[in-house]
Amino acid sequence: MNDTADPGAPLIELERATVCRGAVPVLHELDLRIDRRRHTAILGPNGCGKSTLVKLVTRELYPVAREGAAPVRVLGRSRWDVFALRSLLGVVAPDLQRDLLRAPGLTGEDAVLSGFFAAQRVPADGVDAAMRERAAAALAQCDAAHLAARPIAELSTGETRRVLIARAIAHRPQALLLDEPTTGLDVAAQAHFLATLRRLARAGTTLVLVTHHVEEIVPEIDRVILLRGGRVFADGAPAQVLTSARLSALYGLPLRVEHDGGGWRLAGADPNVSFSTAREH
Ligand SMILES: Nc1ncnc2c1ncn2[C@@H]1O[C@H](COP(=O)(O)OP(=O)(O)OP(=O)(O)O)[C@@H](O)[C@H]1O
């Protein structure tokens, strides 16, 4: 199989893509196109299909087969060797974290190096000095250099998450697919991570960020997609989509969205209720 990406193609194209989990459809005939360098955030209530969408792109899940054009194309192609595809994408997702934690004897450095091979392990003779250098730089960028020699099975949630983010960025992917990437990070690590995201976005790495936290919608993100019940509920520029009315309708609860100096915040209609600090982990 040819494993190169079409350089002019969109990052993601979904055409009437339906995905079932068990016997139940959780994405319903979804039409969606995300172009490269169109930094996109995806928000929606629990269970609306956000992680399913990420897994569809990384080929952990497949769409229901149907007649006509392929329902899913990534970087212009509907067929990929999954390892080749995943080496073009930097992924931070809970399942990946779980898989890495199960890999026997993996250190922080190994976990980052495994990203070069889109695997959960490092081939004995596959690592060169340049990879080690880039892994060290990525760990340092995530304030995790001190975790390089530690077994990742022994790290705290936030420490593991830092290593996972380093893994996602070390091989300089074309796009980052981030499924709730700041889970478990303390405030300093979150701020640091968001600054890293902004820098990568400005340098040309396409961001696709699944999040529950509007404050993670950094100014470089120029498109927001709201999902509800496996369908697109709203799609457009952040200022158009992130309105109090829309988010209240999405979550079925009165919410107030605030926007100042490029940052977003979500508050309850009751001004004493703030959601920006009530982060569920
Ligand atoms: N392995 C599975 N088997 C059956 N149903 C599943 C499975 N995994 C997920 N689902 C269901 O698919 C739906 C979509 O799940 P998904 O994980 O994509 O939601 P999500 O939007 O990422 O939610 P959250 O915000 O809670 O992470 C949910 O109803 C969920 O219960």
UniProtKB/TrEMBL annotation:
<dbReference type="InterPro" id="IPR050153">
    <property type="entry name" value="Metal_Ion_Import_ABC"/>
</dbReference>
<dbReference type="InterPro" id="IPR003593">
    <property type="entry name" value="AAA+_ATPase"/>
</dbReference>
<keyword id="KW-0067">ATP-binding</keyword>
<feature type="domain" description="ABC transporter">
    <location>
        <begin position="12"/>
        <end position="254"/>
    </location>
</feature>
<keyword id="KW-0547">Nucleotide-binding</keyword>
<dbReference type="InterPro" id="IPR027417">
    <property type="entry name" value="P-loop_NTPase"/>
</dbReference>
<dbReference type="Pfam" id="PF00005">
    <property type="entry name" value="ABC_tran"/>
</dbReference>
<keyword id="KW-0813">Transport</keyword>
<dbReference type="GO" id="GO:0005524">
    <property type="term" value="F:ATP binding"/>
</dbReference>
<comment type="similarity">
    <text>Belongs to the ABC transporter superfamily.</text>
</comment>
<protein>
    <submittedName>
        <fullName>ABC transporter ATP-binding protein</fullName>
    </submittedName>
</protein>
<dbReference type="InterPro" id="IPR003439">
    <property type="entry name" value="ABC_transporter-like_ATP-bd"/>
</dbReference>
